Amino acid sequence: MNLFFTAHVGTTTEPKINGDVPSSKFVDRLTSFPVVSTGLDVVKSNPMTATPLAVAKRTSLLVAAPMAPLASLSYFVLEPLIEPIMKRLDTVAHDSLSRLESTWPVIKEQPENIKAEAKYLAFLPLTKGKERRDYVASTYSAEYSSCGKGGIITTGSALICTLLIVWSDGLLRIKSMLDGGRGSKDVTVQSGT
Fold it and tell me: How many angstroms separate the CA atoms of 63 and 69, rounded?
């Protein structure tokens, strides 16, 4: 089992030196993740990366071709020593991917979904801030219109009422979180009383 050859060539169907087909549970499992397979497709299709990869592959074949008889001989001599180690490394790496998959199930998602979720989480503070700003502005507007004709007294009264309403809504939300969601999560105080 020649995992080094498999990992660097990028396919598990090319024959090894002695004609066997290499197989790696780790490489197969890793390339089955949508994020990894999409990334490999992008790297292979992008001209900026596809050309250096093709040159590297041709160069490695040119360098390896004259050494094939020597490599074949050394492979047969070292195979009994290396193969158990490589099998164990493959098993450990495969198990690590299983733990990674159970810890981070998002790795099984499509790249578009991961990108959308990351974008949502990145802009969440901004979105929530805008929601809170709009909530405070609408509460103030409602209180200002219910307080009277205008002026300093009306403005001050609307500010104080808005402050009290926002604080009480915040405390009710904290209470509902501390209660473990037993109560209503969207509790708001009725304004204009």
Answer: 13
Q: Backbone phi, then psi, for 81, in 5-degree steps?
A: -85, -40
Query: pLDDT digits over 127-154, tens only?
Result: 999 999 999 999 999 988 888 777 888 8
CB 183 within 8 A of CB 176: yes
Task: Give the 3-state secondary structure of 111-178.
Answer: HHHHHHHHHHHHHHHHHHHHHHHHHHHHHHHHHHHHHCCCCHHHHHHHHHHHHHHHHHHHHHHHHHHH
Lowest mean pLDDT among 88-92, 138-142, 152-156, 157-161: 152-156
| % of the chain at pLDDT higher than 90 | 27
Which residue, 185, 146, 180, 145, is CA-closest to 169? 185
Q: Which residues lie closer than 8 Å to 110 by C-beta, 6 or more apart?
A: 34
